[in-house]
Amino acid sequence: MIKITNLEKIYRTEEVETVALNDLSFQVKEGEFVAVMGPSGCGKSTLLNILGLLDDPDAGSFLFNGVEVAKFNERKRADMRKKNIGFVFQSFNLIDELTVFENVELPLMYAGVKKSERKARVDEVLEKVQIMHRRNHFPQQLSGGQQQRVAVARAVVNKPKLILADEPTGNLDSSNGNEVMQMLTDLNEAGTTIVMVTHSEHDARYSHRIIRMLDGHTVTENILV
Amino acid sequence: MFKNYFKTAWRSLFRNKLTTFINVFGLGLSMSVGLMVMVIVQDALGYDRFHPHPGSTYRVLSDYTKRNGEHWAMASTPLPLADALQKDSSTVAAVTTVYPALGGVATANGKELYIDGVFVHPSFFSIFGFRFNEGNPVSALQQPNTIVMSKATALNFFGKTEVVGKTIKMANGVNYTITGVLETPPGKSHLDYAVYGSYSTVAQMEKDGLLAEKSAAWYAFNAAYTYILLKPGAKKAVLQSQLNAIAGVLNRGNRDGSCALGIQSLNKISPGQAYLGNDNARGTSWGKLYFSMGLGLLILLAACFNYTNLTIARGLTRAKEVGMRKISGARRYHVFLQYVWEAVLLSLLALLFAFVILSVILRYQPFNDSYEMIPASFRFSSRFFIVSLLYAIVAGTIAGIFPAWILSSFTPLRVLKNIGTARILGNVSLQRALIVFQYALSLVFIIFLFAFYKQFSFLSKSDPGFKREGVLIVPLNGLKEGVASQRVASVPGVKSVSAASMKFSARFGGMNDPIWLSDRDHAINLNYYYAGDRFLKDMKLAFIAGTNFPPAAGEDQEHYILLNRKAAVAYGFTDPGKAVGQKLWINDTTQLEVRGVLKDFNYENMGKPIFPLAIRSNPPANRYLYIQTAAADRKEIASKVQGALQVLDPGQPVTFSWLSEDLDAGNSQAATISLLGFLGFIALSVATLGLLGLVVYTVEIKRKEIGVRKVTGASNAQIVHVLSKSFVKLLLVAGLISMPVGWVLARLFMQNFVLRGSFGIGSVLLCFLFLLAAGLFTIVSQTLKAAAASPVKALRSE
After folding, report:
1. CA B673, CA B449: separation in Å to the nearest integer?
2. Number of domains comprising chain A
3. Domain coordinates of chain B in residue numbers?
């Protein structure tokens, strides 16, 4: 599903040049659950941004489902993103002014899905993440774990092929963290490809494979399954 | 999608109550000015809408150019024009002259009232949409000496409208039979007179020498107005060529210059055009309308700019939302529309607030005195609501476009990485410049307002040169002076009673006629009043030469006249003593002897220079009692005087006023001060809200800096100082710019007055201190809050 080859990303300011990704290459197959680990500043988040088509690389190739997307413009990237990718963030990033239902409904609305279908799909996914009873609450009224479940629901409501999770349990206690990890595992078992950036060895063990990064490139790959 | 926009916008406005309040307050205040302008515009455009043939009724205009190049464009035309046009029946359905020569004092039913009137052709009522309450519109003005009066006039004279057949007598002795009473018109018209006399009366009056002979004077272009109703299907161009032909004939017989005649559609008459002389348009002019609209737009733009500023400042806290929307698939236009809609929603809320302000203004009329700034006759209509709604939508869109553009440009990456969003406004130099501009403008406004207030309160308290305290004025309203005086004199607390033909007020309310010494060609148009010897004594008017009227002067025949010093000088007597004993012609047959010269006194607005004035004596012309009262309970005396007069005419309510209050009201310009105060308040509020926006924004982007300063040991006071000083500098710059400008403007304004109050640097500084205090409060309230906040959160969120 994902094949990146010799990927490079350099951040430049007037005086400093920071190499975020340096000649990075790896692949992710459809249905895989991959964890990316490494110390702060090793390039994990940059990688995730590029994989999520939020940023573009300076050099190298990025094939997504066999299509070269490295040089896509913003509009094409947004289209590709909308149809294929769901995001889960450490800080949940729910919209405070929208209820649980409306937050989850958002991607469907922008995708132009009809109201009746939206309702059915949102209800279905809320049921799946067991937050149905809170559907009319606002994010501030929920616990961290509940908020992350809503965020996961929002990420999957559009049935993306790929979920990118950036420290999904970073703001949660261990019990809520485990619940979220179990949810991601369930999604993966149902066929969704997952790439997760994490500092947690515990969380990484939920994945099939761990890519360890340092200074912008991979140092090791551990296959767990 | 729209519902989602609405929900998000509504919840966001609700969650951020302070920001919403600031925006609704600022925009609402500015929009209330916009609504006031709309009321004025609607009123100005609402003239002559009830006439039956708006598309085919025209007023004839004339244009005269003298050989030396002098040029006049006039709304008036010569009197014979109407008859000449009437002869061509192919295009013209009806023509009427409107000849404003009927006004003056009229007597009917034992009452004397001043009325304004015009002579019109019988066809007047077929051209215009006035309806008859009594009488027949077709026959009403066929005969000479017939008159149709407005309903209000009939009620004033007779207390009823069934008055057809009764007689009204004008001051020149001409009697008119009332042949019709009009209904109250359904709307405003530029033709709005108390009485309409038959044009056929004019010929006889000219014969009798009661009117100047103009009915055959083709070159008297300023004599009257001519209105034409075209036949159905008749072409304007044909009428124009007919007028050209008439002008051609006139030009052939004229060596002094040339004229042209044109037409103006009835619905284009009001608002009036500044270039048009003798214009009988009513209401405001296009010039004033454009000025009002410009002012409204300027204030609205300033408020919109504040909304923009505040929203962008707040946008920093909403970046996450934009990012998430985009990650969820929103395109830029989705986000853009959402923010524009939010601004529109806020603008609609502001509109509600503006409606509240407008309703208060309409109810209490704080900006109206003798001049109706805000038309009192205005009523809310569905059309007004629709236009207001569109206005709010446009205002919201203007305010929302820029922040929507900025916020929708956030890329998800920028937001997620939490960089770059902080300095979306660059170094805010434009904002700073605009804040300086807004504050400078407000300060100029405040300084000017303060000067205006000081000047008029000085005028209202100045000595006018006659007794102003303890004088009760009661209009006689047809009561006999002698009887009324006697009854009032017996009221306890009344010291003396006298009478005059006018009431002292800010505007001259007397008469004006040519009066000459020996050569009629050197006649002076002299203002004059009627009053008796007792009035002059009671009002403590001082003589600098000669003496007062003898008692009972003018009762049989008028012999004497008094002049003020200016009048004596105007007749060439710099030594007032020499004027005494001179005889002045008041018409071709009557001479009056100058019996005394009065020290000049301010008989109209205190700010105006004193013009020549005469006082004549003719007891029947007296219309007001001047009652000198002892320093006692004013209310009690007034009610006793009312009671004493009420028995003389139980059907007529007795009104009264105190001279000192009349003069204060006339000279203090309370309505103008209220309006300027309101505009000044808006200017200051808008500037303060703008400053608030900038301070909030700055505090927002300096949150980390504040946190670092705090953890390194800065006290709250030090942080407030660091954050505030650049803003205080802005206020100082604004002050440096506007203090001299305001001072110069204030001095220029005061140059218009003969009597001037004091307005020095101290007053200007006082205004600046006031503005500085308002600004400092705004700045410190925010910076103190930021300084007091815990640094932990700010640093962690970084």
Report:
1. 7
2. 1
3. 2-39+286-456+670-797, 57-268, 471-667
Tokens of B5: 């926009």
Separation CA B186–CA B189 (nearest Å) = 9
For residue A7, the enclosing domain spans 2-223
Q: How many CB atoms lie within 10 A of CB A159?
A: 13
Given a contact cutoff of 8 angstroms between Cβ atoms, the answer to whether A20 and A215 are in contact is no
pLDDT one-digit tens code per residue, B653-668: 788 889 888 888 777 7
The number of beta carbons lying within 10 Å of the beta carbon of residue B568 is: 28
What torsion do the CA atoms of B145, B151, B157, B161 make, to the nearest 10 degrees?
90
Compare CB distances from B413 to A49, A94, A102 and report the shortest one's residue: A49
AA letter at A78: A
Q: Is B7 on the interface with A (CB under 8 A)?
A: yes
Nearest by CB to residue B4, choosing from A45, A93, A102, is A102
- Name which of B152, B177, B151, B153 is nearest B164 in CA terms: B177
The encoded tokens of residue B492 equal: 């306890």
Is the pLDDT at B430 greater than 70? The verdict is no
Q: Which residues of B touch A93 (CB under 8 A)?
A: 320, 323-324
Interchain contact B1–A (C-beta under 8 A): yes
Q: Report the alpha-carbon distance of residue B440 to residue B742 in Å, rounded.
A: 9
Signed CA dihedral, B706, B707, B710, B712: sign only:
negative
- Which chain B residue has its CA at the smallest distance from A54's CA? B413
Distance (Å, rounded) from C-alpha B134 to C-alpha B163?
Answer: 8
Cβ-based contacts of A111 with chain B (< 8 Å): 329
Integer angstrom CA distances of residue B544 from B37, B515, B656 = 51, 22, 32
Give residue-wise pLDDT tens across range A202-215.
999 999 999 999 98
Q: Which two tokens stand for residue B568?
A: 């004596």
- Do B214 and B171 meet the contact criterion of CB atoms below 8 Å apart? no
Work out the widest C-alpha separation in chain B, in whole angstroms. Answer: 102
Please give the Cα distance from B746 to B629 (Å, whole number).
39
Asked whether B329 and A81 are in contact (CB, 8 A), the reply is yes
Asked if B91 and B238 count as a contact pair (C-beta separation under 8 A), the reply is yes
Residues of chain A contacting residue B323, judged by C-beta atoms under 8 Å apart: 93
pLDDT category at A225 given cuts 50, 70, 90 is low
Which has the higher per-residue pLDDT, B426 or B472? B472
